[in-house]
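Q: What structure does this chain adopt?
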Amino acid sequence: MINNFLKNWLSLEIISKITNSFLSEGLDIRFVGGCVRDSLLNIESLDFDLCVNCSPYLIEEILLKNKLLFNNKWKKYGSINILDENLFIQITSLREDYNHSGRKADVRFTTNFKKDACRRDFSFNAIYLTPNGEISDFFEGIKDIKENKVRFIGDAQQRIEEDYLRIVRYYRFLAMFKTPNIIFEYHDIILQNLKKLSLNVSNDKILIELDKMAKNPYSINSFMDINNSLKKNVLIEYLIQIWTQQNFVRGLDKIKLQLNNF
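A:
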């Protein structure tokens, strides 16, 4: 199945041009993240994350050489966005994150795909796919998808402390599965960290994730308790509470609109 998606991606002129530009320089460029995850769920994606074993400075040189337009706003984090009317395409240097503080981290560039995978949030977001169809699945993400499981890479507490938005993303990804296979120890860890969410993550960032939740095939799993579909889950209860205190009407309206669909 994934090879059919890959064939379609490479039939897109800009994707083909990007991959060939780096391959012709002897570099290793791979698809990763959402597009790979979604393809394994038989979902088409218009967002493409690619990673490559070179510095962002060399990425820029190669893009300029091949007359590909880009935005380098996030260059210090190793990410370069390709400018395209129809697709979101981001190319990122392999990197390690360290000195985390909520959502921010210092970065160290690497040429090692396993080290890059270790910084990612969930197992199925660390699956790498080469243009030739070779898969690198360092943390059994494919197995987790088959088992309807959302699993943090490594220690869940550490992953959340690195970026508290991952709490929201955890609930977002539950909506990929009709019947998620819950890892129950995550519940207490999330409860312990919920109050830090609003202190470290902007409401606008949370709203972006809520929008993505609503578009998932089983969005009820992102908003309601898995064991009681008549009860809101702890994340939504918390957001309603904190946004009521803040009088954040946009957020409350977003939640109300979605809850009315269930």
